Each structure stands twice: as structure tokens, then as C-alpha cells.
Amino acid sequence: MSEVYIRSTRHGRDTIVAVCDADILGETLEGGRVPFKVSKRFYGGTLASLDEALNAMRKATICNIVGKRIVEAAIKKRMVQKTAVIYIGDIPHAQLVIL
């Protein structure tokens, strides 16, 4: 079942993976200091399953994830700590950087 959009890009030595829940792509999230646009340009890529997204994230040096399903899955797989998650309204967002 397709649940998220995933976009992977290379920038120099880094692999950047952006993942968002499918139902929030294109939305503007309110409730933070500034509105947060889940833009199709940045997040819109391939419609994928949570497992496919998590596998891509394992290969990345930088991840940017937004949405209840993907952030919860990343927490369950111990890729993200709950204390590292911020909320824009009621939508979780996390970033990972592998040094």
C-alpha cells in the first residue's frame, strides 16, 4: 500500500531523502512560528510504502521527514528519537543528519 511520497537527491557527497505522508503533500501546515509548506517540489517524488521509505532513509546522509505515519515508523525503527520531533500544529517533523 502506498502511503508516502519519497524524493531522493544527491548533493556532493550527501544523499538527501525527503519523505512526507501522502495526504499532506502540497499542504501548508499552520501552528508553528511560520507556516510550513509541504511542497511538491521538495517532497513530491515517488509514491511508496513505509518500508520503501525507511529503506531509502537508511542509505541517506540527510533525511527530512514530515507526517504522522512516517515519523511514527521512524521512531519505531529507532531511526528518530521522540525528543527530536517537533510539531507544526499536530503534524510531526524530524530531520536526521549522519555525520
Describe this structure in words.
The protein has 99 residues and is an alpha+beta fold. The protein has a single domain, classed as uncharacterized conserved protein from methanopyrus kandleri fold like (2-Layer Sandwich). It is 22% helix and 38% strand. The strands form 2 sheets. It has a 6-stranded mixed sheet. It has a two-stranded antiparallel ribbon with strand order 3-4. The mean pLDDT is 94.
A few lines on this structure:
With 99 residues, the protein is an alpha+beta fold. It is 22% helix and 38% strand.
| Mean pLDDT metric | 94
Q: What is the number of independent domains? A: 1
Percent of residues in helices: 10-25%
> Helical segment tally?
3
CATH topology: uncharacterized conserved protein from methanopyrus kandleri fold like
**Strand percent estimate:** 35-45%
Looking at the structure, what is the overall shape?
globular
Total strand segments: 8
Distance between the termini: 32 Å
Side-by-side strand order of the widest sheet: 5-1-2-6-8-7
Reading the helices and strands in chain order gives EEEEHEHEHEE
* Biggest sheet layout: 6 strands, mixed
Judging by the overall fold, what is the CATH architecture?
2-Layer Sandwich
